[in-house]
């Protein structure tokens, strides 16, 4: 059996965009290589978040692990007994509402520096923090308080004050950053880990997202955190010589959250060019989508999502059950 390349175009599905004449960005984007390389187009059921989709995609089960704990695993953080993980995303808080802050890259470095300078506020909790793209971070710490139930990104929602030292960190950063701060969501611990399908036991995951890498890490897969999109391709090409590969394109989702349909079109076209450059001779390839992300509203859309492959495994009009997608594909790999 030859190795399989799985490519996640995160959040590629979309709403029709008025500026595009009612078409979706991926319908407008020029992607001749992907469409020709993977001629079999099918559909499956999307999930609200990437981790929900990926865990079921690889194992057949929804995850029993909090989003922040998954990301902590992807970042190699300490999640030993009693520690709780908090996914911290940039946000503006106006007293009543949490407004998640996308497109603040010009302030990301200052935000990170401000957080580092004030981490002493958590010192009694034995904290650990890891930063990743766009000023986002995960904090793990000893925590025995009630888990706050605030809004879940990317949807703005009512502000729920965070108790204790973490709340003090949030308000201190806001005061020093003219209202820009961080706010937690996806909070929790590691729960039950389901085993991956046997056919993809040996897999390397390559992404800039600790969410995708965290799912892979909990399943025992090899992981590479690679922030730059272009840098992921040569690493994936080399890894494909040794086993199956999961290559994740989180930028497609990110530009949707920024409500920038032209950025989304451009990155899809760039991905198509890179796919042709590095994988024109590869057999057994699957392009898939986890959910819709609207360039109109900036939020996730729960909807059926497309996947394309060069592996003839399904009937053309069949809506494939998500939990059966990978096993059926692997049964048909030559």
Principal-axes geometry comes out as globular
What is the string of SSEs from the N terminus onward? EHHEHHEEHEEEHEEHEHEHHEEEEEH
* Cα radius of gyration in angstroms: 20 Å
Global structural class: alpha/beta
Beta-strand proportion: 15-25%
Cross-sheet strand order for the largest sheet? 10-9-11-1-12-15-2-16
How many DSSP helices? 11
Account of the 3D structure:
- The protein is an alpha/beta fold and 334 residues long.
- Helix content is 33%, strand content 23%.
- The chain contains eleven helices and 16 strands.
- It has helices spanning 25-28, 32-37, 50-59, 67-74, 105-118, 164-176, 210-218, 229-239, 251-257, 261-279, 322-331, and strands at residues 5-9, 40-45, 83-93, 97-100, 128-131, 137-142, 157-158, 180-188, 203-207, 222-225, 244-249, 285-288, 292-293, 300-301, 304-309, 319-320.
- The strands form three sheets. The chain has an eight-stranded mixed sheet, sandwiched between helices. Strands 3, 4, 5, 6, 7 and 8 form a six-stranded antiparallel sheet that branches.
- Helix 8 (229-239) runs parallel beside helix 10.
- The longest helix has 19 residues, at 261-279.
- The radius of gyration is 20 Å and the shape is globular.
- The model has no long low-confidence stretch (mean pLDDT 95).
């Amino acid at each position: 059996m030859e190795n399989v390349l799985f490519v996640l175009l995160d959040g590629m599905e979309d709403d029709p965009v008025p500026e595009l004449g009612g078409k979706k960005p991926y319908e407008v984007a020029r992607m001749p290589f992907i469409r020709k390389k993977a001629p079999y187009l099918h559909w499956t059921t999307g999930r609200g978040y990437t981790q929900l989709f990926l865990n079921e995609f690889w194992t057949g089960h929804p995850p029993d692990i909090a989003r922040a704990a998954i990301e902590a695993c992807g970042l190699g953080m300490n999640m030993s007994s009693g520690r709780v993980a908090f996914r911290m995303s940039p946000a503006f808080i106006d007293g009543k509402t949490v407004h998640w802050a996308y497109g603040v890259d010009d302030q990301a470095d200052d935000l990170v520096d401000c957080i580092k300078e004030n981490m002493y506020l958590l010192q009694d909790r034995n904290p650990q923090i890891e930063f990743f793209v766009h000023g986002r971070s995960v904090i793990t710490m000893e925590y025995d308080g009630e888990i706050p139930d605030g809004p879940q990104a990317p949807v703005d929602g009512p502000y729920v004050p965070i108790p204790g030292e973490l709340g003090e960190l949030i308000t201190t950063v806001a005061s020093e950053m003219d209202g820009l701060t961080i706010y937690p969501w996806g909070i929790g611990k590691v729960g039950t880990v389901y085993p991956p399908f046997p056919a993809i036991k040996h897999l390397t995951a390559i992404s800039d997202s600790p969410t995708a890498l965290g799912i892979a890490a909990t399943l025992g897969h090899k992981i590479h955190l690679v922030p730059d999109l272009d840098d992921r391709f040569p690493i994936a090409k080399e890894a494909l010589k040794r086993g199956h590969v999961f290559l994740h394109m989180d930028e497609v989702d990110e530009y949707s959250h920024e409500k920038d349909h032209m950025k989304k079109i451009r990155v899809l076209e760039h991905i198509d060019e890179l796919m042709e450059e590095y994988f024109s001779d590869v057999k057994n390839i699957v392009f898939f989508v986890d959910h819709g992300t609207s360039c109109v509203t900036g939020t996730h859309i729960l909807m059926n999502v497309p996947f394309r492959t060069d592996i003839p495994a399904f009937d053309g009009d069949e809506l494939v059950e998500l939990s059966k997608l990978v096993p059926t594909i692997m049964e048909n790999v030559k």
